[in-house]
Amino acid sequence: MDIGSELYRKTLLTISGNSLVEKLTLKYGGKLAAKFIASQELQPALDVIRELNRKGIMVTLDHLGEGIKALSEASGYREEYIRLVRGIAAASVNANVSLKPTQMGLALDAKACFTNIRAVVQEAAAANNFVRIDMEDTPFTQATIDMVKQLHREGLTNVGTVIQAYLHRTRADVKDLIASGVNLRLVKGAYKEPAEVAFQKKSEVIDNFKAIIRMHLDQGIYTAIASHDDTIIRWVKEYAAANRISPEKFEFQMLYGLRMNEQAKLAADGYRVRCYVPYGKMWYPYYTRRLAEKPANLMMVLQNMFR
Fold first, then answer.
1. Looking only at Cα atoms, what is the longest distance across the chain?
2. What is the CATH number of domain 37-282?
3. Cα–Cα distance for residue pair 162/157, rounded to 1 Å
4. What does the pLDDT look like over 83-106, one tens digit per residue?
5. Of residues 9, 118, 132, 185, which has the active-site annotation?
6. Could you say which residues bind FAD here (predicted)?
7. 62 is catalytic
């Protein structure tokens, strides 16, 4: 990442970690956060999915929550995800599921976390649906990968995870997970990580991102590319065309509230597009990471504030 954008990201993440800032944002910022969060409840989120589906856009539905402090909270999230999976099936919408390991208790009890996640994956398997286990910051990277591989060994292959291009370990992880048959979402990475574990220069992250995309496309593996970067999107289009890779072999993934017109245009142009749609009341950590990604996101929120 370049020095300016990295300084902005680290500064905003530091500020958002202040308890007073969090308290004030939660009290007054709900309407602003609605730019990036579909709703606080499931049913309105399903309505959003229907509208996106009508535009040819698939969805990943995420019930917000992470970093819980008691396993009883994890049980509540597990039950909400089971309700979510059933809600998707009942609504007959084109959407799969995304969840965070710490939401299910990974930081408290790894065994309990695995049991909670397995219950959601089993429910999704019964509904012929797919679960994406999000990747959080590096203290949880290996544990997340291990859980996904264990679920596959148990025959629950309707589960995948996320790989972050800014980590030094990423290419080795991709090679290992491809060999294990694990479906991956490829992203740049949005957490604050030190130079010991992550690339700090934007050019290095982009190079690694392209490398892991090629590792998929060149082997004919279905590829989920999560990026709002025009440079990456254009490069994928050109690489696929030059190598006669069908648009059916990959999908572009973007976040709800960001570049919605571009998502619709890509879908209209015949590309597979999936929108990451979050809902729920625990929106603050997700919201602050979206603002930290680039100054333009913060400016967009500030403009809405004064309208």
1. 53
2. 3.20.20.220
3. 15
4. 999 999 999 999 999 999 999 999
5. 185
6. 135, 164, 188-190, 202, 227-228
7. no
